[in-house]
Amino acid sequence: MAHFDTPGLMFDSDVFFDEPELPTPTNKHMPNDNRISATLAPADKTAVLDAINIIKTKLPFLVNLSSLERRAMPKMSDKTLAFDEKCVLYMAAHPELLPGFVTADEVMKDRTLRLDLTEVLQELQQVTQGVSDTVMLASSEAYKADLAFYQNARQAAQRGVMGADTIYNDLSERFPGRIKGQAHPPAAPTQ
After folding, report:
1. Residues 79-96: pLDDT tens digits?
2. 3-state SS track over the chain
3. Is residue 19 over pLDDT 70?
């Protein structure tokens, strides 16, 4: 039975609250800080690196453009694809209109290579994005653990735990400009 008595209001009744069922944490030690728990076996790492080397040997013509080259060259986008498709048809039907410095066979090789490599690129981008995100997540989780250890060492040093001050002083060099013994944790530095 609940009883609420506020000036001008009165409530006297049985009240039942449905408490939502909370999810059970999967990791009791570091909740929300352990989204990934994996290892890469040395043999698998070697196999992946070997596969990457195979990709490189199968694509010996790949180029690396400078940032200036990337900015300067005309780029094909979704809007220009329709233009390119029309040009394919017109070039085939009217080869006499091709400038002397443009070779129809080379243009077709470029188009075919673009289509083939676009398919490869889409697959590789999914893999590289996943690898990049996983490296970022694993690094973040390790860094959070580092910061927790650092804060614990700071607290232990403040309480006079033997050897904790040496550890804290060594680790605090990562955060120059901070006052030793500062109460709030350091901001995560940019790399």
Report:
1. 899 999 999 999 999 999
2. CEEEEECCEEEEECCCCCCCCCCCCCCCCCCCCCCCCCCCCHHHHHHHHHHHHHHHHHCCCCCCCCHHHHHHCCCCCHHHHHHHHHHHHHHHHCHHHCCCCCCHHHHHHHHHHHHHHHHHHHHHHHHHHHHHHHHHHHHHHHHHHHHHHHHHHHHHHHCCCCCHHHHHHHHHCCCCCCCCCCCCCCCCCCC
3. no
